[in-house]
Amino acid sequence: MIPATFAALAGALLLSTASAQTAAPPPAGPSVGVTGAASAKVQNDRMQALVRAEAEHATAEAAAAEVNARMGRALALAKAQSGVEAKSAGYSTWQQWEKGRPGKWRVVQSLSLTGSDFAALAALLSKLQDEEGLLVSSIAFSLAPDTRRRAEDALTREAIRAWQQRAATASDALGFAAWRPGRVVVTTGDVGPQPRAEVMMRAQAAPAGAPPVAVEGGTTELTVTVSGDAVLDRPAPR
């Protein structure tokens, strides 16, 4: 059996713990919500192009053989280009039917090419068009991860300084001599759509003697927003 004195002590401890858990938090001082932001346009240093090989034949085997051969040569050219990352991006096969005509099989395979040397990648695209008859589906530009991180770090410091200035201004305008930061949230994001060049072509191959692919990377506008509460301390003396 548990001694009565021990049971009473345990009961008192449990009651004290429950009271501490249910006690209301101390009232917070007055606060004002403040927002600060900073934005900058950063030069894009990453280019991604999507190219595809297409073939149409009476049999699926013949269409696949043509596409596989052309894409194999395209991959060899891409891997020989320094600084270009190449990876397969899709493969599809389907049968097409036309009234009164035998059905045909169509095969399409896509290849994703990414790099930071825009001129070299554009030259590779032109070569793939001229030598292998590949079609350019799309070209998009963005920031490399390290470039984005460095730019966002700098903007974060700038946005925090803007937030602090607004907190100080609000504190003074409301008649308080001091303030301190409460809960603050930092958010990052892009402004507007990313630069993108869409190339939609239904031809089986690029026209002979087509001009080389020309590209312009443009910029990405980044913004960092800091929002939160400035807790007001000590009303200013009158």
Describe this structure in words.
The protein has 238 residues and is α+β, with helices and mostly antiparallel strands. The chain folds into 2 domains: 29-45 and 143-196 and 216-238, Translation Initiation Factor IF3; 47-142, Alpha-Beta Plaits. Helix content is 35%, strand content 42%. The chain is built from 4 helices and 8 strands, in the order αββαββαβαβββ. It has helices spanning 4-22, 60-80, 118-132, 145-173; strands at 31-43, 46-57, 84-98, 101-115, 135-142, 176-191, 196-198, 219-235. The protein has a 5-stranded antiparallel β-sheet. A 3-stranded antiparallel β-sheet has the order 1-8-6. The protein is elongated.
Please name the defining characteristics of this protein.
single chain; 238 residues; alpha+beta; Translation Initiation Factor IF3; Alpha-Beta Plaits; 2 domains; five-stranded antiparallel β-sheet; three-stranded antiparallel β-sheet; 4 helices; 8 strands; 42% strand; elongated
